[in-house]
Amino acid sequence: MEDSSNTKIEILEEDDLKLKFILRSSTAFANSLRRAMKSLVPTMAVDYIDFYMNTSYLYDEILAHRIGLVPIKTDLEKFNLPDKCVCGGEGCPNCQVSFRLNIEGPKLVYSGDFVSDDPETVPVYDNIPIVELDEEQQLMLEAVARLGIGKEHVKWQPVSSCTYKIIPEITIDEKCNSCKNCVEVCPRNVFEVEDDKISVKRPENCSMCMECVQVCEQSGIEVKETNNFLFSVEGTGALPVKKVLVEALKALKAKAEEFTSIVEIE
Questions:
Q1: Are 31 and 54 in contact (CB under 8 A)?
Q2: Is 231 in contact with 240 (CB distance < 8 Å)?
C-alpha cells in the first residue's frame, strides 16, 4: 500500500500561466491532484446569453458556445458558487456578472468588445475573435457569467493542460565500462560523460524508454519507477496557476474530510 503521508511539493518554474513542480507522493494522489486541478477548482465563465439581435452569419447557439469558452479573470474572494450563495442560485452580484455587447458591422468582434458590470471581471485576453460582421449586420446581447467547475463543463476548467510523468531512479553500477552507448542512444540527454565516466545529470528528462538499458554492454544501468512526479501545468489565465494548485489541494482536503465524517457516522 502506497504511503502519501510524506507528500511534498517542490516548485521548479512558476509564472501566472505556467507551473512546473515535483510532487513526492503516491501514484493515487498524483492522479487525484491532476484531476482536481482540471475539474474541482471554480472559475468564471459565461453560462447563458440573452440575444436581442443577431443578424450575423452564425446561429445563436454557435455564438453562445464560442463566448462561453472565453476565459474570464476570476476573483474567488468576490464571488460565490450559485449553490452556496445567499440568493440560492437565482442570480445576484455575489455570484454572477453581466457582459453587454452592441456592435454593428463591418467589424471583427473580439472578446475585448464586451462591457462588464465589474471592471475587474473581464476576459483574460482582448483579442479572441468571436464573429465577423458585414455591412448592416448587428449583434446585441447580454451574457451572464458565474462560477462553475470543470466537472460541469470544460469552459470552467482553469487549466488548458495538466500532465505529469514519473521521475525514475537511474543507477549506474561498477560494472559500467564507459562504453558511452547509453549517452549516444538516449533521446533526452539524460546522461553525460565526465572524466571518461558516465553520470546521470537530468533524470527528470527520462521517458523510461529503456533504450539505455538495452544497449549497455555490461548491463550496468538500472531504471526504476519512483513516487516522484514531474507536473507541467498551463493555465487559461482565469487564475494564476499556483492559485489553481492551492485550490485543488483544498478541494481534495475537503473531500477527504467529508468522506471521513461519513465513515464515522456509519
A1: no
A2: no
pLDDT digits (tens, 9 = 90+) for 168-220: 999 888 777 888 888 888 888 899 888 888 888 888 889 889 988 888 887 78
Local confidence band at 3 (pLDDT 50, 70, 90 cut-offs): very low
pTM above 0.85, yes or no: yes
Q: Grid coordinates representing 130?
A: 468571436
What cell was used for 125? Answer: 485576453
Burial of residue 142 (CB within 10 Å: 0-12, 13-18, 19+) is middle
Give which of 35, 47, 135, 157 is closest to 95, Cα–Cα. Answer: 47
55/266: higher pLDDT = 55
Higher local confidence (pLDDT), 97 or 4: 97
Q: Torsion angle of alpha carbons 67, 138, 108, 158, nearest 10°?
A: -10
**Rounded mean pLDDT, 118-134:** 96
Name the grid cell of 50.
440573452
Task: Tell how strand 197-200 and strand 8-14 pair up.
Answer: unpaired
C-alpha 19/C-alpha 253 separation (Å) is 21
Q: What strand order describes the sheet that includes 115-116?
A: 43-54, 138-148, 96-104, 115-116
Run of H or E including 211: helix 211-215
How many other CB atoms sit within 10 Å of the CB of residue 221?
22
If you search the block for the grid coordinates 546522461, which residue do you land on? 191
For the domain made up of 43-152, the CATH class stated in words is mainly beta
What nine digits make up the cell of 27?
A: 501514484
Locate 65 and state its grid cell: 458556445
More confident residue, 241 or 90: 241
For residues 97 and 121, the answer to whether their CB atoms sit within 8 Å is yes
Phi, psi (deg, nearest 5) at residue 248: -65, -40
